[in-house]
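testing teh design pipeline on a random one, pls ignore if ur not involved
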């Protein structure tokens, strides 16, 4: 075999190696396709808390509810149904959702939060906003911070795959109500008001949709 042919074979071998290497790193795509993003759980690798569900306490659960409680068992079932579910990450998301939903309600902007509300909760919020508008009332509100966030209870329906998590929130707000004349008839723009809420979020754990919905509110 002469020199030029040998060089071509070597170069061809290197080219094939590089192509296979790039395919293993970048994957293959057909047409125009959005890049697949790893979830936070995938980036972190296998979660230790899932490995101890069968053999011992899961700190992701027991940090928030008593071990062997009904809520702890429900949360464990949610994790089995959806291995990407993390109680800690859920509560972090609930913190942001609480402020977003609460302030949107106070300002009467329900369109922006409709996807995060069940039909019943949306209807109740809409009725309250419409009543304020009929009476000519305007709300001025500013979120001042969250003092307390705690998981109150959790339930899981094995037949439907739906998980429900109830969270207790204690926050502080600047809040006042003005009448048609613009006079403040309730609240204050200089004093903070403590707000207590008990909200229940629900999601079908086997669904590809990762979003939770607010399905019940209380104090």
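output:
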């Amino acid at each position: 075999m002469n020199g030029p042919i040998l060089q071509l074979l070597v170069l061809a071998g290197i080219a094939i190696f590089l192509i296979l290497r790039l395919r293993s790193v970048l994957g293959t795509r057909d047409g125009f396709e959005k890049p697949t993003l790893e979830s936070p759980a995938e980036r972190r690798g296998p979660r230790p808390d899932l490995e101890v569900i069968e053999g011992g306490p899961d700190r992701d659960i027991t940090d928030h509810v008593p071990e062997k409680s009904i809520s702890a068992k429900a949360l464990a079932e949610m994790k089995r149904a959806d291995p990407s579910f993390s109680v800690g990450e859920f509560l972090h998301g609930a913190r942001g959702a609480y402020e977003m939903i609460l302030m949107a309600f106070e300002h009467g902007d329900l369109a922006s939060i409709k996807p995060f509300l069940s039909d019943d909760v949306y209807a109740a919020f809409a009725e309250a906003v419409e009543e304020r508008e009929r009476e000519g009332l305007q709300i001025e509100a500013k979120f001042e911070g969250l003092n307390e966030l705690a998981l109150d209870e959790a339930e899981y329906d094995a037949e439907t795959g739906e998980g429900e998590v109830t969270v207790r929130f204690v926050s502080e707000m600047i809040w006042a109500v003005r009448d048609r004349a613009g006079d403040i008839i309730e609240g204050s723009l200089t004093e903070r008001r403590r707000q207590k809420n008990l909200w229940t979020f629900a999601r079908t754990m086997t669904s590809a949709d990762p979003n939770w919905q607010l399905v019940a509110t209380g104090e």
